[in-house]
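Design a sequence for this backbone.
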């Protein structure tokens, strides 16, 4: 991507600051989505989570879509969207658009497009996964209308610039789990959370810690204080922490993708993760100034989830997202006509993907595909 004009650079810097402020004050997320949409080049956006088992969706914050269509999406069309059941197949932080899930002409033939997207004038959507587990994911989506056209390389590049910051803000907001928090009372606000919170300066020297943080330091299993400095047991994480803290002093944009979620392992083998929130810009500056802190470091136990069965099968047999989507639907829904209805695509399209699934997996019948899927979800089936 070529260098951005100065006005765009300033816009990005301000946007990143707004994103981090939203980690502490959830009421700011709608405005963050509005500004992110403008920066990326879209007309609407949503911060959503999806469950692959129930195929349900939850719109946490949204901007630019008529509330009636939001309701329709959650009730009916989230299950028909091309990302349904296959979003987990992609990597966290990866920027995706419609053509990453299916050929565009197939998208135009779906019920999702004809009944939900087209009536509103939406022609494409840019997604990025911010967090995921075996069965669920959280992602940001930015919709583009006919005047903007389908996402191009510039759109993807701009989205990629803000995704690391959105990830950090969402993950930290999840750890803090506050409805609202006054940034100038951050230390008091997070004193009761289970995660350890450490306010540190640019050299990672501890200037304040919450109750959980003090307990972690006393235990000394995953981290400790050496000469007043926060020291991690993991050498690579220690280096990343020092780099992020030093960068935080130079402002939000400097932090970039470093240290979004640093994995840590305690002496007894327990897994933790650390997140770093810069405190030198935006509304967070008040919290940092109180303690001369450059960043807040949050440390908590990690929920270790392996890859989902769909992800394992998809990568093993080199399935496309659409093929994987059809495979999952065959197991959950039934025959060709039922799958076509459930996914909002033509029966001929389902049959085409079935033939490709047979060729890639060695299966000869739909029952073989069901048995294949079951073998990855139930160890008692062979």
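Sequence:
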């Amino acid at each position: 991507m070529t260098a951005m004009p100065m006005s765009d650079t300033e816009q990005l810097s301000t946007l990143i600051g707004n994103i981090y402020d939203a980690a502490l004050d959830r009421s700011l997320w709608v405005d963050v989505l509005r500004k992110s949409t403008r920066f990326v080049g879209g007309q609407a956006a949503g911060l959503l989570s999806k469950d692959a088992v129930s195929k349900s969706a939850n719109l946490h914050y949204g901007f630019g879509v008529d509330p009636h269509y939001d309701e329709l999406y959650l009730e009916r069309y989230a299950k028909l969207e091309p990302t349904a059941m296959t979003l987990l197949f992609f990597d966290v932080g990866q920027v995706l658009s419609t053509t990453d899930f299916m050929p565009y002409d197939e998208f135009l033939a779906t019920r999702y497009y004809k009944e939900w997207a087209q009536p509103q004038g939406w022609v494409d959507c840019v997604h990025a996964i911010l967090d995921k587990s075996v069965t669920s994911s959280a992602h940001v989506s930015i919709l583009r209308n006919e005047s903007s056209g389908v996402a191009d390389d510039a759109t993807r590049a701009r989205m990629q610039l803000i995704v690391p910051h959105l990830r950090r803000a969402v993950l930290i907001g999840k750890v803090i789990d506050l409805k609202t928090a006054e940034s100038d009372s951050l230390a008091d606000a997070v004193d009761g959370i289970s995660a350890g919170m450490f306010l540190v300066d640019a050299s990672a020297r501890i200037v304040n810690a919450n109750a959980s943080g003090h307990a972690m330091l006393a235990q000394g299993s995953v981290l400790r204080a050496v000469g007043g400095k926060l020291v991690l047991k993991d050498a690579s994480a220690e280096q990343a922490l020092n780099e992020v803290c030093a960068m935080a002093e130079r402002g939000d944009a400097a932090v970039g993708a470093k240290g979004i979620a640093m994995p840590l392992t305690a002496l007894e083998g327990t897994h933790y993760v650390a997140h770093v929130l810069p405190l030198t810009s935006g509304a967070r500056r008040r919290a940092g100034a109180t303690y001369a802190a450059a960043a807040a470091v949050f440390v908590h136990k990690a929920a270790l989830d392996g890859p989902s069965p769909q992800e394992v099968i998809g990568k093993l047999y080199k399935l496309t997202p659409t093929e994987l989507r059809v495979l999952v639907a065959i197991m959950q829904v039934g025959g060709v006509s039922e799958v076509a209805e459930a996914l909002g695509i033509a029966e001929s399209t389902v049959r085409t993907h079935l033939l490709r699934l047979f060729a890639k997996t060695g299966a000869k019948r739909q029952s073989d595909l069901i048995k294949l899927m079951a073998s990855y979800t139930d160890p008692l089936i062979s």
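The longest helix spans residues 153-176.
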